[in-house]
Amino acid sequence: MRTISRETIVEAVAELCKKAACKLPQDVYGAIKRASNNESSPIGQSILKSLIENADIAQSENVPICQDTGVAVYFVEIGTEIDLSHLDIYEAITEGTTKGYVEGYLRLSIAKDPLQDRSNSKTNGPPIIHIKLVPGDKLKITLAPKGGGSENMSRLAMLKPLVGKKGIVDFVLETMRLAGGNPCPPCVIGVGLGGNFEVAPYLAKKALLREIGQRHPNPYYAQFELELLEAVNSLGIGPSGLGGKNTALDVHIETYPCHIASLPVAVNLNCHAARHASIEL
Length: 281
Fold this sequence. Notes:
Number of strands: 10
CATH class of the largest domain: Alpha Beta
Number of domains: 2
Distance between the termini: 14 Å
CATH architecture of the largest domain: 2-Layer Sandwich
Shape: globular
Number of helices: 8
Strand order of the largest sheet: 4-2-5-10
Radius of gyration: 19 Å
Helix content: 25-40%
Largest sheet: 4 strands, mixed
Strand content: 15-25%
């Protein structure tokens, strides 16, 4: 059994926080560039060029892509051949989050309590941590910082199964119409289908981690992603909600079996700065 020290995890998480905030993933950067080249709206094209320039400055000067450095959301894969009995993985990731946000001069955005005490925690924690056990002796940590503007526009519906594919399309399009320019489009759209009330939003969030242009392994859902992308971009919301053909950079679907009486659908929107970073220890 391999062991990984607490200090190693804390330092790795801190570096992930700083990297994710300042360096846009290449797949997202490339998608914005392609959108800029095919945008028909002059205003939309100008906005997209500004997004590219902003990403270039953020990376070259090592400053955040956006002032909203978000909620720290982690997807952690723990190999079953790793012994972590000497530490609390949640505490280690929480400490690493605070260290990274403070050292990186990243905005601290977490309120202590949703209602009773909305003062700033001043730690950007506690983070949100999803853990999965996998075969092997590796520890993989993926961070996806999530800003409030796009997260606030996300939605969940418990549809009736009889509405089928059309009902899902209608719900996704309604979500985008209601969102307008608030989630800072062009968006990456994660759609979670199935499971139950709590699983569908998790699937939608996880869908945002997939590289842009990487289709679902099931051909049926791969085609459905393309159909949804075309439908969303036909809305004309455009970059920053000011009109144009690029409302979304991509649509990703994740699925899970569900109850015969249910069709849970969650839509999680990410702004154009679809930030994420991973490390394997």
